[in-house]
Amino acid sequence: MRYIDDSVVMKRMKTRLNRNKGWKALFLTGTLFALLCLVILLVRIVTQGVGYLDWDFITNFASRRPENAGIKAALVGSIYMMCIIAPVSMILGVATAIYLEEYAKKNKINDFIRMNISNLAGVPSIVFGLLGLTIFVRALALGKSLLAAGFTMSLLILPVIIVAAQEAIRAVPQEQREASYGMGATKWQTITRVVLPAAIPGILTGSILALSRAIGETAPLVVIGIPVILRFLPDGLLSEFTALPMQIYDWAKRPQEEFLYVASAGIIVLMLFLVIMNSIAIFIRNKFSKRY
Amino acid sequence: MKKWKYLTMTAVVGSALFLAACGSNEETGDKETETNTATNTGSETTNEEAALLTGSVSGDGSSTVAPITEALVEIYFDEQPEVKVSAGVSGTGGGFEKFIAGETDFSNASRPIKDEEKAALEEAGIDYTEFKIANDGLTVVVNPENTWATDLTVEQLKEIWIEDGTDKKWSDIDPSWPAEEIVYYSPGTDSGTYDYFDEVILDGEDLESSAQLSEDDNVLVQGVAGDKNAIGFFGYAYYLENTDKLTAVKVNGVEPNNETIETNEYSPLSRPLFVYVNNAKVKENEAFYNFMEFTLNNAGDMAEEVGYVRLPDEMYQEGLKTLEGLK
Fold this sequence. Notes:
The structure holds two protein chains of two kinds.
Chain A: H1 6-49, H2 55-59, H3 72-103, H4 108-120, H5 125-139, H6 146-170, H7 174-182, H8 187-216, H9 219-224, E1 229-230, H10 244-252, H11 257-291
Helix pairs in contact in A: 1-11, 3-6, 3-8, 3-10, 4-6, 5-6, 6-8, 7-8, 8-11, 10-11
Chain B: H1 2-21, H2 25-41, E1 55-61, H3 66-79, E2 83-87, H4 91-100, E3 106-109, H5 115-124, E4 128-137, E5 139-142, E6 151-152, H6 154-161, H7 170-173, E7 183-187, H8 192-202, E8 212-214, H9 217-225, E9 230-234, H10 236-240, E10 247-248, E11 250-251, H11 258-262, E12 270-278, H12 279-284, H13 286-305, H14 313-326
Parallel strand pairs in B: 1-2, 1-3, 6-11, 7-8, 7-9
Antiparallel strand pairs in B: 3-12, 4-12, 5-9, 5-10
Helix pairs in contact in B: 2-3, 3-13, 4-5, 13-14
């Protein structure tokens, strides 16, 4: 008895292979299209901006003359802001995720909270800007300060970090927890010594993506009213400041064409900043994932 | 191996950026002084011997006025490096909102304050003073290929820009013009430029609804430059930077240029640019008074440098007198 009819298989083989090729070509075009867009964008930005990108550009304040314009205030402001956003959002985010995954009981209220956090991740950033303006800038009277902007940005990315951390914690096999309990460990010991180390690569990946978003967001800063024109560096948490995307946005709107090139140079600095942040994250992640 | 190269490279670039960020203040300050002495010599500087002030001044408002403020802040830094002046660019309306909330000391505006804003300030108990710091000619532009509509009367501008429920063609305005549909480009409704145009041309009627609105005037420039049938309007500085791509429309036979705008011959579209100050804050904050004095002394030069038109000198003197009265 023959289970496989060779001639039928041979006849269909061609169409199957072709179908495979077709799909492969489609997926490849998809990938290449995204890459092509990125390359075009990069080439355009770099060719426009590289002429203005030099040491003076980094050490000068903004100027009315494009050739003197620099990004010092914005770069320092963004770095300081990141120093607030990263700890605030990661501590709050990971804590929330641990609570929801390890401690919270499965009931309607907690389900409701979970659902809302996922929904919050899709709220437009400008809404968070309005929230920050009402709560931090006006109600808590923080003004247009580093702290107010940092908190607003933390709120903006918090849902993303929570969701990512939840996924990472959930991915730790239940057996590992049970093994830990079996050895006599308490719940807290299990969380700090078993669950978190195993979940850290996932948590970091999500957090870094979220932090990169925070560094590039303009809308909430515009709503809060962060100034663009200033010639001083922040000297404390309540000091006024400006940030990279605000400065780039301001330059891009100028009538003089040269300022468009200055804006491109600013974009290059912003991108380098992102690359550095991401590399640090990849480095930490690789270090931790080797242990398990 | 590859990974290591990647990491070392990023580490080097990273530390370079970070060090740069922490670079010293004095260095840049010196350089600025060098480049700016040339522009400073012409104008009077009243505070040369004055002691160094400290304090902070914050403002917000029109993005049209912003380049002048930026230039002023830049050269003011050489005189009073310890005074922290900051200014946002939320637009005239957005700036007034913060001014009314008492969050800012001064507010830049590319149109006079509105009645409802006056009322809100009164309610908040804020006394304010208006200063004119420069002139701008709101320029109506068409594509260079447009050879017919290069000299329009105010009546024709009204006819073109006011929404009447139909799709307008150039031939509807003047039968000798081509029967092609007009394409509109206008600044966004939160800008003072829009408000000013609304007041002097539209007279409260609705703007043509097919108009493409943009907060970014460069988008308007590109739009008009790319379409033969397009018409748009924006600040004179944007026209000045794009004279090769655009034709400025004469209004009632007068072409917008430095002279016609300064003498107000380019009427009704030449408009003053304003700074509104909070009287109480002028009184209590010496640094703010000093900055405003500096502003009125240097606004003309700086306005010209960034593409606007200076006011007659008497007006700055008048402003200085008013300011003195506030102290």
